[in-house]
Amino acid sequence: MQTINWYPGHMAKARRMLEENVKLVDIVIEIVDARCPLACRNPDFESLFKNKIRVVFMNKSDLSSRESNKAWIAHFKSQGITAAELVSTSQSAKKTAVSIIESAGSPVIKRYREKGIRKVLRAMVIGVPNVGKSTLINRIAGAARAQVGDRPGVTRSKQWVKVSDYLELLDTPGLLWGKLENETLAKHLAYIGSIRDDVLDTEEIASLLLFDLMRLCPNELTARYKKLNAEAEIPYELLEGVCRSRGFVLSGGNLDTERAARIVLDEYRGGKIACVALENPTDSFDTEEGSAGGEDTDGQADWEADSPTNAEEWDERHE
Ligand SMILES: Nc1nc2c(ncn2[C@@H]2O[C@H](COP(=O)(O)OP(=O)(O)OP(=O)(O)O)[C@@H](O)[C@H]2O)c(=O)[nH]1
Ligand SMILES: [Mg+2]
């Protein structure tokens, strides 16, 4: 796979931005995609948010499997982290999210009440691009306050959203962090649309996605694209199979794999292929084993992921 790499400078900036803003809040709400919580989480958070109340929302849980959602919640619980599954696009998300945020913040409210102060709870919503941070904030606020979109990098700067006289949420731009040197996890971020498609080789990413889905949910995959060869050993053959299934043939008889790649990624991200987890708490992604591509050997960036640019913009505006 094309190497997805991280610029340490951007990493430092993103970290500094979080460090500066975390001082302004009582709670850190971490949004992860339920299909790949590991890829979405930053290993640095333990130290960065040491003294903060933290909540993990596994959003887009409608796009993953029930068993996996349950397993992840139990996993977070075993680590002492409050976690809940959410579907921010559904009405019921507001009630679930607000009740968890309020109960997580109740010790702070209580502390202030003892001093005779009615405290406004402030929570910062963070996460990699496209996981649904702004959608959740809008849902909680009950209005379209924050801009949303089905691509990464929609939110470009931080924005406070007042939910009530006692709760304010800080929307932040999606930040890509530290996991990009692990090829498997980087691949997951590409699948879920956290990395801009125009800096990716979409045909390669779609081929790898098909290859992974053939292992995770062969029945659903072959039901959707009928001409796939379940025994294919080369990921690209599966993309060609999608072309045959859908009749994506160019004049001259060549297969339109570019079109197939766009369709596969769109359909996967929209939950049309299967609702299945890419990661489970018992998985180990420490090594590159099981990844179907080349290796990052020299640590040099082949291309620059987009979202650090958001971090820079955000930084500049708030320095
Ligand atoms: N299926 C499903 N889609 C969701 C859910 N939450 C958000 N989405 C969709 O995911 C896409 C991204 O949502 P945003 O709220 O813009 O994501 P974000 O994290 O703010 O993204 P950036 O600002 O780019 O970092 C939109 O198309 C939403 O409709 C969910 O729970 N389930
Ligand atoms: Mg946003």
What can you tell me about this protein's structure?
The chain is α/β, with parallel strands linked by helices. It folds into two domains: 8-178 and 307-317, 3-Layer(aba) Sandwich (Rossmann fold), CATH 3.40.50.300; 182-269, Conserved Hypothetical Protein Ylqf, Chain: A, domain 2 (Orthogonal Bundle). It contains twelve helices and six strands. The protein has a six-stranded mixed beta sheet. A hairpin with a 2-residue loop joins strand 5 (159-164) and strand 6 (167-171). Helix 1 (8-22) crosses helix 12 (307-317), helix 7 (183-191) crosses helix 8 (202-216) and helix 8 packs across helix 10. It is elongated and about 75 Å long. It binds guanosine-5'-triphosphate and magnesium ion. Magnesium ion binds next to helix 6. Magnesium ion binds at residues 133-134, 154-155.
Which key terms come to mind for this protein?
alpha/beta, Rossmann fold, Conserved Hypothetical Protein Ylqf, Chain: A, domain 2, 2 domains, 12 helices, 6 strands, binds magnesium ion
Order of SSEs, N→C? HEHHEHEHEHEEHHHHHH
Give the low-confidence spans: 287-319
According to CATH, the fold-level topology of the largest domain is Rossmann fold
Please tell me the overall pLDDT.
85
- Radius of gyration (Å): 20 Å
What's the helix and strand layout?
Blueprint lengths: L7 H15 L4 E7 L3 H4 L4 H4 L4 E7 L6 H13 L3 E4 L7 H22 L6 E6 L6 H9 L17 E6 L2 E5 L11 H9 L10 H15 L1 H7 L10 H12 L10 H13 L37 H11 L2
Parallel strand pairs: 1-2, 1-4, 2-3, 4-6
Antiparallel strand pairs: 5-6
Helix pairs in contact: 1-12, 5-6, 7-8, 8-9, 8-10, 8-11, 10-11
The protein binds guanosine-5'-triphosphate and magnesium ion (MG).
The site of magnesium ion has 4 residues, from helix 6.
